[in-house]
C-alpha cells in the first residue's frame, strides 16, 4: 500500500545541512498498522510528512496505492491527498467551528452537496462515538474528544491510508488507550492501512502489526513485530522484554525463550522430560491483542544433558537462546 525507496530530505541550518531523512526504504502492507518508533529528532515527522507530500523530498520515490506521488502535478496531488487521511498530535481543529463543522470542512472543499454532507458527518461522528457532541466547539471538548473529531475529519474522504502524527502523545494514559482501541477498530472494520509515528513503546505494543525503529534519519530495523521479537539482538525485543544479564549457575543450562500465547510450553517440556524447569526472570506483554513473553529458564545439568528438552523448546517457541 505504501512503498518508500531511497527517501532523502535535508534542511539547511545555521551549522550546515541537516539530513532529517537519510536514504529510507520502507514498505507498509495493505491493511496493517505500521509504527515508526524513535526519539525526538529521529526524522519520524519528516518521514510522515513526505508520505503525503506536505514536505517535498530531495530524492527518492513514494508510492501510495500504486500511485507515485512525486510524479503528480499539484492538481493530481490534491486529488491523491483526499485518499490519505491525517491526524495530528495537537488536533489542529478550527476553533470557530463545531465538531460537526470541523468534520464537514474537508467535504465542503471536495464540493459534496449539503444534504449528502450532513449525512456523512453524522455517520462519521457516530463512528468515533461523538454523535451527541456534534454541536460542541473544540473548547468544550476533552482532549480525547478533540482527537476523535480529528479522526472523523481524517476519514471524511474515505481514505485507504491514515497517517498518525504522534496522535496520543498529548493525552493521558486512559484516553490514549481508548484512542488506540478506536484506531485498531477502524483498521479492522474499514480495512484502513495506518502508518503512525510515535516515541512511545506502549503504542507499538498496543496496536502495531509491524514496526520500524528510526534514529538519526535512518531505519535501524524494521519488520513484523512477531519476527523482530524472535531475534534476541533486536532493539525492539530488548525494549519490550527487559531482562538483565544472565546469571552464572553451576551445573545448569540458562536459556531465554520467547513464547506466544499462554506459555504452557514450559510446563509441557517439564512434564515430557521430567526436568525441574525454574523461571529465573521474565517479561510477558500484550501485543496487538495477543500475548507474548520472554522467559529466562534454568534447566538442571549441561546443554548436552538437556538436548531433548531444548529441541522441544526450539520446535515450539518463537525463539530460543542458550547462554554459554
UniProtKB/TrEMBL annotation:
Q: Which GO terms describe its biological process?
A: amino acid transport
Question: Which is an annotated GO molecular function term of this record?
Answer: ATP binding
Gene3D superfamilies associated with the record: 3.30.70.260, P-loop containing nucleotide triphosphate hydrolases
Keyword terms of this UniProt record: Amino-acid transport, ATP-binding, Cell membrane, Membrane, Nucleotide-binding, Translocase, Transport
Give residue ranges for domain ABC transporter. Answer: 2-241
Stated name of the protein: D-methionine transport system ATP-binding protein
